[in-house]
Structure formats: structure tokens, C-alpha cells
Amino acid sequence: MDRFSKYLLTGLIGIVALGQFVQVVTRYVLQVPVMGLEETMLYPTLWLYMLGAVNASRENTHIRANVLEIFLKTDRQHTILAIVGEIISLIVGLWLLSWAWDFTQYSWRVWKESPTLYIPTFFSNVALVIGLGLMMLYTAWHLWGHVRTLTGAAR
After folding, report:
1. Residue 114, helix vs strand vs coil
2. Separation in Å, CA 135 to CA 3, 52, 100, 108
3. How far is Cα of residue 119 from the mean position of the Cα atoms in its chain?
4. For residues 27 and 33, is the Cβ–Cβ distance under 8 A?
5. Residue 152 region, left (φ>0) first, then alpha (ψ -120 to 50), else beta?
6. Rounded to whole angstroms, how far apart are CA atoms 55 and 86?
7. CB distance 116 to 39 below 8 Å
8. The pTM is what?
């Protein structure tokens, strides 16, 4: 899974960078804009954004502002703080996931298309529910690890 995500994210970064390069060359050098390129680039960009967040969740490397850690002295206190943070993240994330699921159902039902190339927007909208679902799985996994550490089961 780790290798697959590396290749997928690298491929998406390459696609987005290539699209932006083509856009700059055609628009500013050749003075001929490519119609629909921005619309096409929306799809890999959204997937890259969501899968990058999933990767940060999987690696547990999200940017955090843990100011309270400065005042905590013991590893047990740090673990309890991590558990509280994971629980709050899980509650908020599951709430957002329910909204994303409703939005995905709406997107499936309406089946809107992009204005220029008529690409179904469902394929970009579904990235939100898949990304949030995977992030919630990894958040629950990290919560489980913190609880095991706190109870001493991880030794």
C-alpha cells in the first residue's frame, strides 16, 4: 500500500505539473490558450489534494499546533492529549464524512458535467468522500494505537 500511494501521488503531481507547464507555454509563449485545460486539471488536482491528506493521515504527519504539549511533563500526559485530539478529530471528521456522503449521493443523482468538456463532476466530487473515509480509518487506527499505549497493551 505504501508503494502504491507513493507512485499514485507522484503520478498525480507529474500530471498537474505537466498540465501547468503546458498552460504556461501555450498561453504566455505561444499566445494560444488551450481551452478546457484548467477544467481537465481540476480532477487530478482535487485527487492529489485529498490523497495527500490521506497520506499525511496514514503517516500521522499532519501539521499540528500542540501548544499544550509544552506544559505536559510525562509521556502518559502526552498520550492522553493525543487520545483527546484523535477523538475530536474523529468526531469532526465523521461529521464531515456524513456531509461528504450526502454530497456524493447528490452528485450521483444530478450527474452534472463540466461546462466546456462535459466531464462528469462526480469523478472529482467522489474524491472528498473517499479521502475523508480513508482519513477517518487512519485516525481510528492511530487512536487505537494511543489507547493501547496508554493501557500498556502495546509493550
Report:
1. coil
2. 18, 10, 13, 22
3. 22
4. yes
5. left
6. 16
7. yes
8. 0.89
The answer to whether 141 touches 89, Cβ cutoff 8 Å, is no
Q: How many Cα atoms are found within 13 Å in the side-chain-facing hemisphere of 138?
A: 17
Q: What are phi and psi of 116, to 5 degrees?
A: -100, -50
| Contact call for residues 132 and 100 (beta carbons, < 8 A) | yes
List the one residue out of 72, 141, 136 whose CA is nearest residue 98: 136
Taking alpha carbons only, the member of 97, 107, 14 closest to residue 54 is 97
Question: For residue 10, with 0-12 CB atoms within 10 Å meaning exposed, 13-18 middle and 19 or more buried, which class applies?
Answer: exposed
CA atoms within 13 A on the CB side of 7: 4
Give the separation between CA 52 and CA 73, rounded to whole angstroms: 33
pLDDT of the chain, 155 residues: tens digit per residue: 789 999 999 999 999 999 999 999 999 999 998 989 999 999 999 999 999 999 999 998 888 888 888 889 999 999 999 999 999 999 999 999 999 999 999 999 999 999 999 999 999 999 999 999 999 999 999 999 999 999 987 65
Tell me the Cα Rg of the chain.
20
